[in-house]
Amino acid sequence: MVVVVKKNPDKTQFNNLQNWLKSLGVSIHTSEGENSIVLGLVGDTTSVDIDLIRSLEIVEDVKRIQEPYKNANRKFHPKDSVITVENVHFGNGTFNIIAGPCSVESEEQVISIAEQVKKSGATMLRGGAFKPRTSPYAFQGLGASGIEYLLKAKEATGLPIVSEIMEFSQLPLFDDVDLIQVGARNMQNFELLKELGRIKKPILLKRGLANTIQELLMSVEYIMAGGNENVILCERGIRTFENATRNTLDISIIPVLKKQTHLPIVIDPSHACGISYFVKPLAMAATAAGADGLMIEVHNDPQHALCDGAQSLTPQVFDEVAKSCFAIRPLACKY
Amino acid sequence: MVVVVKKNPDKTQFNNLQNWLKSLGVSIHTSEGENSIVLGLVGDTTSVDIDLIRSLEIVEDVKRIQEPYKNANRKFHPKDSVITVENVHFGNGTFNIIAGPCSVESEEQVISIAEQVKKSGATMLRGGAFKPRTSPYAFQGLGASGIEYLLKAKEATGLPIVSEIMEFSQLPLFDDVDLIQVGARNMQNFELLKELGRIKKPILLKRGLANTIQELLMSVEYIMAGGNENVILCERGIRTFENATRNTLDISIIPVLKKQTHLPIVIDPSHACGISYFVKPLAMAATAAGADGLMIEVHNDPQHALCDGAQSLTPQVFDEVAKSCFAIRPLACKY
Amino acid sequence: MVVVVKKNPDKTQFNNLQNWLKSLGVSIHTSEGENSIVLGLVGDTTSVDIDLIRSLEIVEDVKRIQEPYKNANRKFHPKDSVITVENVHFGNGTFNIIAGPCSVESEEQVISIAEQVKKSGATMLRGGAFKPRTSPYAFQGLGASGIEYLLKAKEATGLPIVSEIMEFSQLPLFDDVDLIQVGARNMQNFELLKELGRIKKPILLKRGLANTIQELLMSVEYIMAGGNENVILCERGIRTFENATRNTLDISIIPVLKKQTHLPIVIDPSHACGISYFVKPLAMAATAAGADGLMIEVHNDPQHALCDGAQSLTPQVFDEVAKSCFAIRPLACKY
Amino acid sequence: MVVVVKKNPDKTQFNNLQNWLKSLGVSIHTSEGENSIVLGLVGDTTSVDIDLIRSLEIVEDVKRIQEPYKNANRKFHPKDSVITVENVHFGNGTFNIIAGPCSVESEEQVISIAEQVKKSGATMLRGGAFKPRTSPYAFQGLGASGIEYLLKAKEATGLPIVSEIMEFSQLPLFDDVDLIQVGARNMQNFELLKELGRIKKPILLKRGLANTIQELLMSVEYIMAGGNENVILCERGIRTFENATRNTLDISIIPVLKKQTHLPIVIDPSHACGISYFVKPLAMAATAAGADGLMIEVHNDPQHALCDGAQSLTPQVFDEVAKSCFAIRPLACKY
Fold first, then answer.
1. Per-residue pLDDT tens for A272-314?
2. In CATH terms, is domain A74-331 a member of 3.40.50.720?
3. In chain A, which residues have their Cβ closer than 8 Å to the Cβ of C252?
């Protein structure tokens, strides 16, 4: 961390600052410039409050130099992590497509979709049992029965399952769920993240609509600091001023995360664009850019889907999308 | 809701669409234009999935005409609601300043600050016991003892208290808290909102960093639909590309909400800018624009505050800010 | 266009509105709902000011149904346009890479780079002679000599050239430039667009940092309405809250534009990310998503480039990027 | 500027970097940390390309410490500048309201509005002769006659006038215009800024829709570096994801600019919100926060205004807004 102090600072305040910094366990290298004094802080600065220092009267600016995350940092863990979900591996050159309905609606529905997406090459089944909906008047999910139907579909097809948890009192219901999803709106639900750090089950953490990549990695840190190192990251679009798509897929997150972390990254083009006929090109783009996997919504009858039908593909269209992505995968960007 | 159908649509698909819309209980007015057919949907369309219709092949576009929220809608409730927190009233021409430390740190600290802000005219005390922090390595709050110290400060000063809940298992600890705050990161924690809809205690709901005003009102709807009509709204800055301030205070939310809802609106300039010497002009601006109240962070020793010291005022500076706002208040915009 | 009028509007105001709308040449279909009256406007509404109607006291809301652009609209021109720049064709299944330095620095530099990128498969040469720089203290380009050196490089290699115009008094200098670029900061420099509509030379129009896709198409309309139909669109990143990359590449623009317009779309990954080692994955993603071309910065010595060296590739790295994109192209998304 | 180099860098590359930095005229202070080497650059770094350094293989990060603008910097010019437009002074405790129609439509219109706003206390007249419109099919302004009518209104009322220039070939027409406005879309039209730096007439520079405050100050630098120090800054809303208002008024720009520059700041609430009944609270907020002036659109018949009628006030409503702002002004925040 670098602290820029104004030229000729009040002496008492300057001493106070230096003593306080030392009390935090960091050592200080001072270099005096023409218009300011620059303090280089050496040591572990992860717990120093950068905004607090910035607010001091004698301070002009503060810059963080080390990333404030450790466990997820590729610098301290140069090799790709491989996250294993049952028989499916994410990271280190693997590529998987997770597919399934936005919401679980019935046992028949989810088994039928699972069978079809498996034929098309999907290796995991997704399905929402608890649904975060903007409106209280919209369908909120089947809850416990939704999980039950997903497990039936797993039994029928062998596909491991992923479903979203909305708060940790639901955790017992997720005992047999293979991968627990934390949705975008819960990316900074820190109490939930802490609880998920105490279990060993793999977590799929989605980026929030207005969160930076660094904040995503800080939320990972909540889980990993608790002892659970099995985290897969997921980009599902960020909020911008553009309104031709529901959100804006930040495709650059793929190379940025490949540089900053050893954890695998999955792209969800369905939520990113919100419109089914944009899913294919985005899925292909993410594959080419080197994503470790995709998560795509598939529904047998999107027109009657209870939620987000707009962004769901029919199994026939999904088959075509999957084929196109598998074709591109061998040519994808490597890191 | 208005559905724009392409010229010469496939007949079967067009019939399907019309039948399906009728099955949702809405009636349809058709008018044929030169390049498209326009369907006007009349009736309760709050549960119609606009994105789903948009995704149909024969549909060009869909536009919502009625706001999707009811209970908070001024159209159905033209008079200002007054939300009462102990002896303090929000709405309908009242004006209150809530003040206190970002985090409760000790009994002495919070009592001392409470006494000072009361002298300056604050009518409620704020203080965080559970703190949502981006980093797991940052101070997370005192928890139950934090609430206890706040109650001591209430006893000492008579000021009702507000504190943030982070998940509903904490609810029993909030039994004696007068106003329960839902933070920006939890604005769409729908499980929490539903639970808070089942109690009668007033709720202070903060807008999320990347949420639209309409989404804020939809979150209110979760609480009100459950039966709890005591909601106060709070703006604390949104995320934009500008980085000279931590967030961007959306001052326009005041007139927008005054038009759309009957609920009171409080502005939090401290979190909006993140820097103490910007708090005063923002507080004055919010007062002039007709906010029903302010929420301001005050700390006896910002340099040693355990969190967000950067945006906290000393009691002396707060006194000056409060004076300036009380002076402006009689001249403030009326609605 | 659909105008939603409040229930029981003031009669005089309602009559005024209807008469005024009719005076604009549109006819009105009225349908009365429970809480409002909906007016469907039929006819050419491109010149109706939607914001003005919205501001009337008796009006609740207004929604535009037809896109406000005509010449660029795929609805009225279903087939892909092919824009021809010398011997190079953009659109309708073609794929071209434009490459070259951010700034032209010398005759030798630009000829040497041109020869190298041609070997790697680039079919056009880019190079800035007039440079829009945020700081007045930064290098502003060689001006007329820059154009001259580009023409020398064209002579040497046969590659047609593209360069950015900054205002229309420079137009005579662009007589021999094959494709005139309008930069992001000038996307809404309407005087310049009008002038470019009066010539026949092809134009490469870059999207502004904070412009919607619809605004980009409206700016195209300025050029096409003047009689120049030779426009190629270019995405180069938009501004968001994310700061790990200089801008955020909006990859979804490819399918959105393919649906809305018949004009070709080129992606510039260099400006989008601003960092050379992110260019490759973004170029590959854009290719997979079906872009009609790429524009990539290449410099023989990025470390000493006079501008934007950070995002330039060496010719060796460019060769690798081009190979990867050409490999993916046959598998790219088709529309 | 601080450059963070990776631990154990390649020696040749490290030497090259240091030699190159020295060749730019800056001296280097080195301090070695546990995980990296920190180079503190001392001297004038305004022309060092931060992105270029960031792209080097051995570099982890670079942080700028000095602001890259000089002439506008309050650090080197602590007292408020006063910009004089005829008999009107901006800055150093003065407060002025500029009012008038969005577009000049006729001599009678503009004289009548001028007389009315003068009565209400406006000290300058605004009016558009050249109009930047998103659509080429919208009214583009009266051009030279527009300027002529403004001058007639000045003759009739004594109010100095401000009007927008769209490109510098129009400059001769602005000979008698007292204050030349550069619109938001031209904030980075650097050729225009350079030309305006060569004249002595005061300039009103509006912030672009997606420009940071620092970029606004860099654009000022273009004008001031040319020798014209008469610049007034204007905030008119930035683009965000919120759509209840046309743009989002960044009210925080007032304290931020007061800290960073000595130039006066004017707020334009009309363009910021785009809806007439939101103008009053925003104007009052800006006044309270200490703006040096306001710019407000007034039209005698907003319903028939040729452009932006939605955001124009009638003279009667303007009178009320002006009264409210003048009442607040003595209580406004001081810096």
1. 998 888 999 999 999 999 999 999 999 988 777 766 777 889 9
2. no
3. 244-245, 248-249, 272-273, 278, 282
